[in-house]
Q: What sequence folds into this?
């Protein structure tokens, strides 16, 4: 039987409030499905010892960064401690052309920017089971004092009220179940009619 | 931790050309996930020995059937050998209220009627890998002569060109992979923001 034309990879974005566990969830998604790619950010921060260009970050000068911004190459960006961080478009397209899905970890404000700049992205919001649980998770990190936790929690409340802007909402109650849901969303999106351009023509002619 | 308000079950419809394997696929979905319900048809055909009301069919007189049609209780119907067969709405609603997903096996013309009568249904089209493979499957049944196979194949070609009316298209290449995709679609649909009404209010108040 002839091979079906290979589908292009899809772009997924996982967002959610600070402390909800995006990093852990994405690590587990990639452990269970290693072919899922992640996006590498561009930064104007100088490389730290051991950091490799194109692995940890793409390192660019502020002038280069601004040029890329002007060219529309940067889907979302932020300034942290005087350095710019951004998500570049071309590497995502290249991975998608190879048939790989890309799963990005992006802040809630960053996600809203991505939605504006890139229509073909599947937005997922990672939701804590309760606000109490989000506070517990922020406390457990133990690296912040109470006022920082309360500040993050306030920001989290505001962000939870933006869940309506996302296509999917995944409740992060238990890691395995959460990752099951994310993988289900990724698989289901590949079955959407509009992702399968040319399928009928292929089936009818083979 | 308080329990999240239970989600209502969703209604899924699996359609596709004759011979593509809908029945086998649905049996396997229900074997792997027994809580998935199926819809029981109403018919005007008299019960055969051993057939039980509400298990195999709901048996109704032609007058009762037409009354239900007029009341909008029948989502789609067909006439076969002089008897009416239809899909009733109320039992689906009752199963959904219990939190059970319902997976219906409906012909392509029936699916188009369901879409018109019931907006909250997730439509899936089961696609043969190739037309050659569909012919092989129709031949393997061995119960029909060549001209019946060719007639079904012609109808199948027309139906494959209606795949664009469905939200999801699932290629039925290998049973386990096919059922994986259908379960992924069912799980992903439960994570859609619009299915999770009241979630933010719950999370923020607990």
A:
């Amino acid at each position: 039987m002839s091979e079906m034309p290979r589908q292009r990879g899809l772009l997924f974005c996982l967002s959610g409030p600070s402390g909800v566990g995006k990093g852990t969830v994405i690590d587990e998604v990639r452990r269970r499905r290693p072919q899922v790619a992640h996006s590498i950010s561009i930064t104007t921060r100088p490389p730290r010892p051991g950091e490799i260009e194109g692995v940890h970050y793409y390192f660019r000068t502020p002038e280069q960064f601004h040029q890329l911004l002007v060219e529309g190459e940067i889907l979302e960006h932020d300034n942290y401690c005087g350095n710019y961080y951004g998500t570049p478009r071309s590497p995502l397209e290249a991975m998608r052309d190879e048939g790989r899905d890309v799963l990005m970890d992006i802040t809630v404000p960053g996600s809203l920017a991505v939605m504006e700049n890139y229509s073909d992205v599947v937005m997922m919001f990672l939701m804590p089971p309760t606000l109490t649980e989000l506070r517990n998770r922020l406390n457990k990190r133990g690296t912040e004092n109470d006022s920082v936790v309360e500040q993050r929690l306030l920001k989290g409340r505001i962000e939870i009220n933006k869940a309506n802007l996302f296509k999917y909402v995944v409740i992060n109650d238990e890691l395995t179940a959460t990752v099951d849901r994310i993988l289900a969303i990724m698989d289901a999106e590949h079955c959407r009619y509009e992702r399968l351009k040319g399928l009928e023509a292929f089936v009818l002619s083979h």
In short: The mean pLDDT of chain A is 93. Chain A touches chain B through 42 residues (CB under 8 Å). The radius of gyration of chain A is 19 Å. Helices of chain A lie at 22-32, 62-70, 90-97, 108-117, 131-141, 146-160, 175-190, 199-204.
